[in-house]
Sequence to fold (226 residues):
Amino acid sequence: MTVRGEKLVEYLSGSSGEPGECPYELLEEMWRGHPVDSVRTIALSNDAIGRPQVAWMLSELRERARPLVDLLPQLLRDSDSYTRYYAVESVRYVAGSDDGQLLAQALRALTDADPHVQSKALWLLANMDDEQLDAATGHASGDLASELSLLRSGEASARWRDRCERGGRLDCQIAVAAVARDHKIVDSRLPAIAASEWPEVREFAAEELRWRETRARQGLRREGTR
Fold:
């Protein structure tokens, strides 16, 4: 535990002002050895300013944030969209096959009121591994459960254009995620996806284009490839 880390946690737990550079500094302290679990104090405080920073730090810590997986259900329900956005991203890195309920909760963000959070949930569905998807499907309910079953069967990918043009919002989201999971989003399909009536699908297509540009420059593989 570092003295600087303790001071930063204390400030973020009780401050009613802007966090400034403190979250970045605390993240650096945790990479240097300050206990990851220390941010639990911030997440459980009554300060709404600190919780978004916790969600962001968990997404940056990735697998190292696994000891804090129990915080994510609360962060996914937070009234702040920034908090929900990074909580959804964190689920990708910390949830395992025994966290089906958490994974299903994160995928319900496909219907979030904020399209940016919806887009992040679409990213999660496109990139979670097969064990995570199976676990989420086992805990999903209603339309989401039916759509996830279609995704696993391959039907959603095969009929992606029809589902996006004639189906509803969830139909299109699942179809686009299925195509991405099968690594079949070829350049010729991106314009059609980017022209979707749904803003989160358009945002997902834009992120895909940026990823392709990065891959072309650096030779990177898609996040979540198996």
User: Anything to note?
Assistant: Residues 101-226 form one domain. The two ends are 36 Å apart (CA to CA). The first helix runs from residue 3 to 14. The chain has two domains: 1-94, 101-226.
